[in-house]
Amino acid sequence: MSEPKKDHAATAVTDHVSRPYPKKMANTLDEKVVFTFPDGVPAFEDSKHFVLVINEKIKPFFYLKSQDVPGLGFVCIDPFIICSGYSIKIPAKDQSLLGLNDPSSAFVLSFVTVEKDPHETTANLLAPVVINTENMQGRQVILDENWPVRFNIWHGLEEREKQQQ
Amino acid sequence: MLILTRKSDESIIIGNDIKIKVLKIQGNQVHIGIDAPRDYSIYREEIFEQIRRENENARSTAASGQLEQLENLTGLKNMFFHTSDDAPTAPVPSHSQSSGHRKPAK
User: Cβ of A60 and B50 within 8 Å?
Assistant: First the structure.
């Protein structure tokens, strides 16, 4: 993906986010950083503050922990590393709500549904969480594109393996 | 629930800011136009419900201690680190994945 274009307003709506990490990733991975979700996430609208919890043992998965609702948290993964060809267009409304002028400031992550059989573990590619690393605001964005709600991570990785051979 | 009957081209106004218009009726499909302030999210109900349900699924698995199951996923983890640029803590040079959309089969 080329340099972020200067004319953000014109390109923001059409720019796809297709690379894993925004330039400000270093700040974002700090567990002291609190992300503000003004609308929470669907089903958990009361949880308006989250922090990242990085646990070396579960890398590349990480945990998004609620600061408002005890015991609430989500296992997450960067969707771009599990699905080659994943490329999203953040709807204009969500960009506006996040104050996201520069798509390269978007930190995108997917909630993971862990199943008893790890090979059945899935990630939600239809509704990624998008965090604007400029203002640390986040929301779960329901995409207009036809990505699956339950994307099988194991199959995604196998597919990637094949493509890299 | 308030129930109103509308014909094509007729509208409903909610509050000061929201207008819902019946654009066209075709068989059992209604084409609906919505005018609402920029900061209102508008979704088809079944999509929103699907996301709610999946969040609830995702949450309960995280809470029930299945993090341990992830720790044991050596096979899965090895696959992740097979490629050189997958270390999550290092800044990743931007690379193009944009051969257009590739939508996986559902």
Answer: no
pLDDT for residue B78: 63
What is the residue range of A148's domain?
A: 8-163
Complex prediction ipTM: 0.83
Region B75-86 average pLDDT: 55
Taking the Cβ of residue B45 and every Cβ of chain A, the question of whether any pair is shorter than 8 Å is answered with no
3-state secondary structure A10-21: HHHCCCCECCCC
Q: What is the tally of structural domains in chain B?
A: 2
Neighbouring C-alpha atoms within 13 Å toward the C-beta of B6: 19
Give me chain A's average pLDDT, please. Answer: 84
What CA–CA distance (Å, rounded) separates A88 from A41?
19
- Interface residue A97 vs chain B (CB under 8 A): yes
For residue B49, the enclosing domain spans 43-76
Q: What percent of chain A has pLDDT over 90?
A: 54
One domain, residues B51 and B27: no
The residue-averaged pLDDT of A36-56 equals: 93
Instruction: Determine, for residues B59 and A73 on separate chains, whether the beta-carbon distance falls below 8 Å.
Output: yes
Quote the minimal CA–CA distance from A56 to chain B in Å. Answer: 9
Residues of chain B found within 8 Å of residue A163, distances taken between Cβ atoms: none
- Verify that B55 and B30 share a domain, yes or no: no
Alpha carbon distance A133, A107 (integer Å)? 7
- CATH code of the domain in which A52 resides: 2.30.290.10
Q: Is B99 in CB contact (< 8 Å) with chain A?
A: yes
